[in-house]
Design a protein that fits this description.
heterodimer, A: mainly alpha, 6 helices, B: alpha+beta, 6-stranded antiparallel β-barrel, 3 helices, 12 strands, rod-shaped
């Protein structure tokens, strides 16, 4: 790995850690209607879209591990989900989607909806929680997270590179 | 010149002597007071002196400003640093006082409940999940904390249960989390029930008092305590107060809504019960 590649890796790690800090420490206190936003899955999608499936999956894995830590449980939901999101975003950008904001926004939206559905799955089907409050939180979480697509688009695009 | 002094010299000397005599006499007559000549001179010179002094003062100020500015600036910076340090000391002192108050409360509790052993821990962060209510504390297995240890405030109000432990930290699931289920009884009449988290009420910071016996009497304001059944929670810890009574969808049974007495939003320090004696029936 040359100096440039090392710099890029360091920048990716710093960016992911920054998002982790924002998601875990800042926005977890700035709740809207009881919900806080997800930032790391959006970043995973961006890494996949601009850097391909392999690196998307790798950075998705790092983002997912930190997302699970921010959630405070020992589950691996986001570890698996962000890895897959990064990988599939990369795969789609190789063959189907153009690398631009519309694709990023659309994939991020789909990822956020799937995240909310996966998170609510256990409550709905194993804990017999009434669907309305669960779906309300799922909706607010998704809408709140969607606000961060635009601010995250530029740094994610800036980090792209094919040098390792 | 010689002629002038010959003609007028004597007169000049006479006038001078007369003036000196007048000055001398007035000094003698108004002893201690200013004589007429000095008074007249002072009348003219005093405003001039005043003006001059004012100018000198101004010049001194300019001098001081020019030559002592750096010194003042340094002094100002030192004073600012001193103020910052004093503020920090005051803040620390306030934090220490608050901790002291909490420990005093805990001391009262440990005297009343000598069957329990406590480990103090600070809250590190609340977890970001929208689907659960839990936080991380700065004590773990190295401090003797184990899975399912009970967590309380200094007043003995129930906060939650340890659900994950690592060497230097632990995750505490709060009483309002939808996975919480605690054997409870109503303090007023010994009514036995189950206090359990509810996803909908979790957003409001409340929990449910469910599985009440048929025909049981529950009133708003009733204090709900742990029953000690289940061996996870010690008996007689205060969970909260009943703030509402609702009936379920079928309308056949009722449940209470409990507002925890532990103020979860403002928690900074909690106490983990690392050991307690089981309740005997």
């Amino acid at each position: 790995m040359n100096k440039r590649k090392v710099k890029r890796v360091v920048l990716h790690i710093v960016f992911i850690l920054l998002l982790f800090a924002l998601q875990a420490a800042v926005f977890s206190r700035l709740r809207i209607f009881g919900a806080s936003p997800l930032l790391l899955p959006i970043a995973a999608v961006g890494f996949g879209l601009y850097e391909g499936g392999l690196r998307g999956g790798l950075w998705g894995l790092v983002s997912g591990v930190l997302c699970d830590v921010a959630m405070g449980d020992s589950g691996v939901l986001f570890t698996v989900f962000c890895t897959l999101a990064g990988f599939f975003a990369g795969f789609l950008s190789e063959f189907v989607l153009a690398r631009g904001f519309p694709s990023f926004a659309m994939l991020s939206g789909v990822t956020l909806v799937l995240s909310a559905l996966l998170q609510s799955f256990a409550l709905l089907f194993f804990k017999n929680v009434p669907p309305l409050p669960v779906l309300r939180i799922a909706l607010v979480q998704t809408l709140y997270s969607l606000l961060f697509i635009l601010p995250l688009y530029y740094p994610v695009r800036k980090l792209r590179g094919r040098s390792f | 010149m010689k002629e002038f002094f010959k003609k007028t010299g004597g007169k000049v000397v006479l006038v001078l002597v007369a003036v000196l005599l007048v000055i001398g006499l007035t000094s003698l007559i108004w002893g201690g007071s200013t004589n007429i000549v000095t008074g007249a001179v002072r009348l003219i010179t005093t405003p001039l002196q005043k003006g001059l002094n004012l100018m000198v003062d101004k010049l001194e100020d300019v001098y001081a400003y020019l030559y002592e500015y750096d010194k003042l600036e340094l002094e100002n910076a030192a004073l600012k640093a001193q103020i910052a340090e004093m503020k920090e000391q005051a803040r620390r002192s306030q934090a220490a006082n608050e901790e002291n108050a909490r420990l005093r409360e805990l001391l009262k509790l440990s005297k009343a409940r000598n069957d329990m052993r406590f480990e103090a821990a600070y809250l590190v962060s609340w977890n970001a999940s929208n689907w659960s209510s839990s936080f991380v504390i700065n004590r773990g297995s190295k401090s003797g904390i184990e899975l399912h240890d009970c967590v309380i405030t200094e007043h003995g109000y129930l906060v939650g249960e340890v659900v994950e432990v690592s060497s230097h930290s632990a995750v505490v699931r709060t009483v309002i989390d939808s996975d919480t289920s605690v054997g409870a009884l109503v303090d007023r009449n010994g009514l036995s029930a189950v206090a359990e988290g509810d996803f909908q009420l979790m957003g409001e910071g409340k929990l449910k008092l469910d599985y009440l016996p048929n025909g049981s009497e529950l009133l708003t304001g009733d204090v709900v305590m742990t029953s000690g059944k289940g061996e996870v929670y010690p008996a007689d810890l205060v969970i909260g107060k009943v703030t509402g009574i609702e009936s379920d969808g079928s309308g056949y049974s009722a449940y209470g809504i409990i507002t925890p007495l532990a103020e979860l939003d403002t928690l900074t320090e909690v106490f983990v019960i690392t050991d307690f004696e089981l309740a005997t029936d």
